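Please check what follows.
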Amino acid sequence: MSKIEQIFKDALFGQLIYDGIITDFENLNSIIGGLDFLPTDNDRKTTGFQNHRLQDLDWWKYDFGSLENMPIKDLTNRMNTSPIHIGKGRKMSDYTDSIGEMKKILAE
């Protein structure tokens, strides 16, 4: 368990670079801090979003045959460029993607 924090941060940093989001590791590390694993609150919206992503992985499994053959950074990039809803309304401006939101966070 002690190495999971470093594995997570290294994987996130690598994915950011793959997605074209350039920052230094120290900046990312200062924003994240330490990882805390907490119980879920069973948020239905989040559960629905995660279930949709699992369906995407099942779909891609047919293209690549198995998890071992899947280009994980490419597939994660596909998910990161999919539209997500942020905000309370249903205006087009309430939709964005994960890459755009991450760029905003890192620019603060």
